[in-house]
Amino acid sequence: MIKDNQKHLNRLHVVIDAVILMISYLIAYWLIFGYLGRSLALPKGIYFSALLYIVPGGLILYWVFHLYEPMRVMGRRLELFNVLKANVVGALLITMVLYLAKDRLQHFSRLLVFLFICFNFVFESAFRLTLRSVLRSFRRKGYNQKHVLLIGYSRAAQSYIDRVTANPDWGYLIRGILDDNAERGTEYKGIRVLGPIANLEEILPMNRLDEIAITLSINEYDKLERIVNACEKSGVHTKFIPDYNKMIPTKPYTEDLLGLPVINIRHVPLTDSFNAAIKRLMDIFGGTVALILFSPVMLIVAIAVKLSSPGPVIFSQERVGLHNRPFKMYKFRSMEVQKPSEEKNAWTTKNDPRVTAVGRFIRKTSIDELPQFFNIIRGDMSLVGPRPERPHFVEKFREEIPRYMVKHQVRPGLTGWAQVNGYRGDTSITKRVEYDLYYIENWSLGLDFKIIFLTFFKGFVNKNAY
């Protein structure tokens, strides 16, 4: 029944999306040639016949960007971002067609295309937010529910129950749990163990279940094939929630090895050659532009450092970078010159006597980091990424903090997701690693731009810098 409802909802989506596309286009047309009174340089028929391509093309783009998938657990932001991407790609395709057919369509109004895309994005977003609100309201009242049975009482089952009970608007109703080890009647947040797994073949024909979620503990996977076969025979949709979920990423990267599915323990988008090349081009361009823009500041700081205390202007220190390779990271010198053996094994502390007056200011404002633009252009670092650490601390943290070394699968950065969220200087290393791992697994150019933008507001002044 849920599947039928989803099909009807998808058909309704398609119809309403088609209507929104047409209305957006016609409003843009009326605004330009009606309200503003601009003269038509092409016959009306060309403008109206364009709808024969724009409407189906728009619907195909919505399908490509996963906008007809169930809304139950798709985030609102992700859905709106997909709507934006579909509209931007649509605008680029229309522009390309107009360019390729410039002999016939040279005078087709570009302003109409721009207004159409803007109106369509606004109307489509408003429609989807309204629909989401209505569905959420229905599900909270008990309608449009998806009935689920859990197989296995494990950590995975508890995690699943936690999330479903915390989000009633998803519309999942957990009917119970089957497990061979827990006693019948054992309860977790109102969900009871109904009996052993052997009861599954009796329960399937008697109940109108929509899904079976297999949540076996890691030592019970020998039963998996039998359970899946029973579920497949009944025609009930089956999904697998692994008990080792803490070891794999939220968005697992699966490879097909001649029919053998291989799940990578960690998905790192920057291991893809295209993604790495795009990020490297952005680093070279951004680092060069930043060097030019900040060169007056760097010149003034260099003079101030030289006058404040004897010693070199630039201080280099060994850090661990991509693939655990060491490199020399550059900074403006902010401390009195020391022996390498004295400075390499200790962090700077509050009111540290080694820090100069100029050094205290440039450390607080992160100006001491500006020479790292040279590291970025050389390829040692990136504009955005996990901050690099000294070899001594890397050896220490790799033993103490789980997954610490994963951060070295990407280039270290001048700024990062942990830094714009407040984890700089004397803060929790464990939390810093959590944010670094999130960045590594969820990298995109959009996330990089967001971090760079936030750095200007949150990343320069560091209250934990001493």
Automatic annotation (TrEMBL):
Keywords: Membrane, Transferase, Transmembrane, Transmembrane helix. InterPro entries: Bact_transf (IPR003362), EPS_sugar_tfrase (IPR017475), Undecaprenyl-P_gluc_Ptfrase (IPR017473). Belongs to the bacterial sugar transferase family. The keyword Transferase applies. PANTHER family: COLANIC BIOSYNTHESIS UDP-GLUCOSE LIPID CARRIER TRANSFERASE (PTHR30576), UNDECAPRENYL-PHOSPHATE N-ACETYLGALACTOSAMINYL 1-PHOSPHATE TRANSFERASE-RELATED (PTHR30576:SF0). The lineage of its organism: Bacteria, Bacillati, Bacillota, Clostridia, Lachnospirales. This is Undecaprenyl-phosphate glucose phosphotransferase. It is found in: Membrane. It is an enzyme of class 2 (transferase). It is a multi-pass membrane protein.
